[in-house]
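Thread: quick sanity check before group meeting

JM: Hey all, I'm pulling together slides for Thursday and realized we never actually wrote out the predicted structure for the chain we discussed last week. Dropping the sequence here so it's in one place. If anyone has concerns about the input, flag it before I start.
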Amino acid sequence: MPKRSAGLLMYRRTASGLEVFLVHPGGPYWAKKGGGAWGIPKGEYHKGEEPVDAAKREFTEETGFTPTGTLVELGSIQQKSGKIVTAWAIEGDCDPAELVSNTCSLQWPPKSGKFVEIPEIDEGRWFGMTAARETIRKEQEPLLERLRDALAKTQR
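JM (edit): ok, ran it. Output follows.
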């Protein structure tokens, strides 16, 4: 059975158009990876935990920001690893300079027996939709299209 995660895609409307808040994973493996490495704040949920509650919890743990507002369901995607990610969008704003991520322990270098403590997220940034498509993990790209479609329906 595949692992399951839940996450939030924060968005805001600006004079120049729609922007989304994406995060870059921390740690040595991701250090030099840019385009295609960014994604939504997300994480696995516990047995008995509602995915939407996990999405909010993970967003706060990984960014230090508390999401508030109405959620827009974006459905699920499957990542290359097989993990299924269920996502929601939420309108909001945050200052990426104030991002504070939780940490986790990672064996580095792999199979060395040495562990280092790393932030789960080392950076967050606002992206316009075109830049977001170039930057987000390809398997998460449908979430951007679903957000755009959902917002277009509410503006009719």
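AS: nice. The helical segments are 51-63, 129-135, 141-154. The chain has a mean pLDDT of 94.
JM: adding both to the slides.
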